[in-house]
């Protein structure tokens, strides 16, 4: 169908060096990319964090580099995070979790043959030590459904030493309401999102109505619980429901937060921060931005619309 055609075209483009060079050097598209990825260096990520702070927004920073099947690359990713955390601390942007980091275990070696899970966990642990030293936190991104159990297991292990490590739950997965119940305990930081991967019907709701109502069910569990919900969505209806549930449970604004992606609905981000709620922005940075944007769009045709809408929106 049309979705498959678009997906295949985007996946082809994501592999083409010629197209990559053209996109990287064309002034208009550079500007477009900058809207969603502030740059490729640590300095770019730190500068974006500093800029967000001027409007009272918090940050969570993702060093781009997924699906690592090479140990050298996994080590490079770990080192990039450790360096980033040191620089955030030096710039006084990490205290009290102002600038934290988001990690993908696949980028830290989870898919390496043999000891992948152990290697990724060890790398994550070293990043957590750097985060502890900087006075901030870490959130484990959630990837496709074949990795959910492994990621939740890594979360349990890391929380024994670093109880502030956060999890991500994707409302499109049928299992997620149960996972929310398990995670709605004191001190537990849980980011709730809809989910960005193309998943089979056996494990995931397919229609946006089902994904949205599942999101609300998960929100109810998290807001009623004792944990720290992180409401990651740009969807006005879901944001409104989250606010109503927080009020219903008499939650102090310091006991939950909203999260959005860098470059998406920036005016709404500022409005939420201005009214006294916590607003955290997810900043992806690094050399791998081209693959990041293309793959995000190829995984789900809806993601293409998502970024295109971001260009037109305020
Ligand atoms: P959706 O894309 O369904 O849009 C709903 C409505 O929101 C639209 O109808 C429109 O009104 C409004 N809207 C959306 N985009 C807009 C735009 N660009 N401009 C204006 N209005 C817009 N996924 C994952 O699988 N694992 C993860 O670890 C993470 N992590 C993560 C962190 C953070 C901080 C965020 C915000 C998101 C993620 N995601 C994620 C991605 C997430 O799963 C999802 O794909 C996107 O957030 C898009 O879903 P929305 O809830 O924003 O709504």
From TrEMBL:
Key words, A-Z: FAD, Flavoprotein, Nucleotide-binding, Oxidoreductase, Proline metabolism
Span of domain Proline dehydrogenase: 48-306
EC number in record: 1.5.5.2
Coiled-coil region list: none
Pathways per UniProt: Amino-acid degradation; L-proline degradation into L-glutamate; L-glutamate from L-proline: step 1/2
Example of a GO MF term: proline dehydrogenase activity
Flavoprotein keyword on record: yes
Catalytic activity: L-proline + a quinone = (S)-1-pyrroline-5-carboxylate + a quinol + H(+)
Cofactor comment: Binds 1 FAD per subunit.
Superkingdom of the organism of origin: Bacteria
This protein's name: proline dehydrogenase
């Amino acid at each position: 169908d049309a979705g498959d055609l678009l997906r295949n075209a985007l996946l082809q483009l994501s592999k083409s060096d010629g197209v990559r060079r053209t996109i990287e050097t064309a002034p208009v598209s550079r500007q477009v990319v900058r809207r969603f990825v502030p740059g490729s260096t640590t300095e770019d990520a730190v500068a974006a964090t500093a800029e967000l702070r001027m409007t009272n927004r918090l940050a969570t920073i993702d060093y781009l580099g997924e699906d690592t099947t090479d140990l050298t690359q996994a080590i490079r990713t770990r080192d990039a995070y450790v360096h980033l955390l040191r620089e955030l601390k030096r710039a006084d942007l990490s205290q009290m979790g102002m600038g934290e980091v988001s990690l993908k275990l696949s980028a830290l070696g989870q898919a390496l043959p043999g000891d992948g899970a152990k290697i990724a966990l060890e790398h994550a642990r070293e990043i957590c030590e750097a985060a502890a030293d900087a006075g901030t936190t870490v959130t484990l991104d959630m990837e496709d459904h074949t990795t959910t159990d492994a990621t939740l297991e890594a979360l349990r292990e890391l929380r024994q030493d670093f109880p502030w490590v956060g999890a991500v739950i994707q409302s499109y997965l049928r299992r997620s309401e149960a996972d929310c119940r398990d995670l709605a305990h004191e001190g537990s930081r849980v980011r709730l999102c809809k989910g960005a991967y193309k998943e089979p019907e056996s494990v995931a709701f397919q229609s946006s109505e089902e994904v949205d109502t599942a999101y609300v069910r998960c929100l109810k569990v998290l807001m009623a619980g004792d944990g720290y919900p992180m409401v990651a969505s740009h969807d006005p209806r879901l944001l409104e429901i989250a606010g109503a549930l927080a009020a219903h449970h008499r939650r102090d604004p310091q006991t939950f937060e909203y999260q959005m992606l860098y470059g998406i609905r920036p005016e709404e981000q500022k409005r939420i921060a201005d009214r006294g709620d916590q607003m955290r922005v997810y900043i992806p940075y690094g050399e791998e931005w081209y693959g990041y944007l293309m793959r995000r769009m190829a995984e789900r045709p809806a993601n293409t619309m998502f970024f295109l809408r971001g260009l037109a929106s305020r």
